[in-house]
beta-glucosidase (Triticum aestivum), 656 residues
Amino acid sequence: MACPNVSWGCLLLLLCFAWTGDAEYMKYKDPKQPVNTRIKDLIGRMTLAEKIGQMTQIERSVASADVMKNYFIGSILSGGGSVPAPQATPAMWVNMVNEFQKGALATRLGIPMIYGIDAVHGNNNVYNATIFPHNVGLGATRDPDLVKRIGEATALEVRATGIPYTFAPCIAVCRDPRWGRCYESYSEDHKIVQQMTDIILGLQGEIPVNHTKGVPYVAKNKVAACAKHFVGDGGTHNGINENNTIIDEHGLLGIHMPPYYDSIIKGVATVMVSYSSVNGEKMHANHDLVTGYLKSKLHFRGFVISDWLGIDRITSPAGANYTYSVQAGINAGIDMVMVPFNYTEFIEDATSLVNKRIISMSRIDDAVSRILRVKFTMGLFENPLADLSFADQLGKKEHRELAREAVRKSLVLLKNGNTPNQQFLPLPKKASKILVAGSHASNLGYQCGGWSIQWMGGSGDITAGTTILDAIKSTVGDATPVVYSENPDDSFMKKNDFSFAIVVVGESPYAETVGDNTDLTILDPGPDTIRTVCSAVKCAVVVVSGRPVIIEPYLPLMEALVAAWLPGTEGQGVADVLFGDYGFTGKLSRTWFKSVDQLPMNFGDPHYDPLFPFGFGLAVNPSQPGFSSARSRGDKKEITLWAALSLLLSMMLAWA
């Protein structure tokens, strides 16, 4: 009798092993399985709590490994300026991201989280990263290949910090420069914005041949991109941030929607919804456009993410009825909610709404399927943890050279000389003494603008880079003195005999609503600096701004005017062109108005009467004499010699 008992025990043991072995094979963990098979398998295993957790994105300041594990959180972000430590190294970033990721992997199903950051002009939150020109400047280059290469460099610098997801690019079509986010827009013309969506190919990688339209694609070692802000964010009434875009269907689909067509064709992984409204309906609650148009008509298969506290702002005031906001946002088609702090309230409300069948389980499954599709496509399940293999990419020399190239190509020459046959630029590298003046000449923070280290940007040496002043000093001849005075007075100008002056003025940094501006004037004392300096000596004015500003009153005082936009950390690109090592090639991607009373005014409008029209941009004419031919140190001596000889000859003739 003992033998049969042993046999039954052995059989049960074998069955147990067989059952365990079968359970260990999970299709969603098998990279050889098709993505849709993996999604279906994983969705079928998930509880409601695990599904809603995937739809939740929280800020790093409230995240921990335990929070990730206990609430099944699907995503974390760094808000503007949110860093593990001041001047954090790549190792500090990677260690932080991995600590959070280990919490996610410790859950029952081990679904990795995805970490996102606003790398909107380089990995701009991170100290020592290369900060590229903002989009308004890149639009002036008209160079999609350049923008694609910037995307490639940005992807590497984002990966250097262990992060696989960026909330970029902004593909808004800014129709009013009074909008505080206009510098995030490539152009007032949707065609230019469409061309610049090539940055997605740089961030995510080239799409394989025969790739299905609408399905996200992210190559190995690349980052997921995010086209934003869907839709009409650049067309709000009077350029007021988060306001109402009043527009007919033809205008919406013809002006603001086209960049999304291109982004989806290029495999963009995610789309962020706009705070703004279209004809009075909040985009975060707009089912017709988010689900009906973006998902159904355009066949977008990635996930839709809210903006920061975006669903809260469905109501006025924000957060007045949070449960309704959760309902309206998710039912409109938002898949992942950037909560970002009160995640327990969001999870509780979403769970309750599903249990009450106000939000359907099919809507939840659609949202989670889209999130998982991006995670599977990126290879997050196979490689969830970051390492330091990309650490040397942060602020890499080649990336800084690329940024310098972008600065050169973004500069727009608006005026060059006060007479038709006499150019002022390029400037001579040899001169008796050069004055550099203005609030923006020696201020790296002003040069970078908003979304640079901090959300609002900053002033001074906020990170590693080259100011325009330092760039000028390194460009001119060794024997040419460069004097810097931020705001010289009349007595200073009279005491010094300058060959010429470069005045660098513009806007102070800003972001979003803080940047809304009905005046669009140069930061004080910029106008006085222009008047004082340019009245005393021939001068070139460089404007550092995120949009056109009032400049017409000062135009007669200056010999040359250059729009430098927000060039970023590589100020050497400005000096490269001012002193003639490279030519001016930039063309206005925005109309430069005469007065704010004309706004909004875009190319093609009936009342179009600009100071400088859309597409304007001078080039230096090599066949014409320039200021450099008359004021370089060697030429000045030659002119003095000829003047002396002429005087002597005149005296001799008079005596004869």
In short: The domain at 44-126+161-391 is CATH 3.20.20.300 (TIM Barrel). The chain has two domains: 44-126+161-391, 399-626. Confidence is low (pLDDT under 50) at residues 1-6, 8-22, 629-656. The first strand starts at residue 56 and ends at 59.
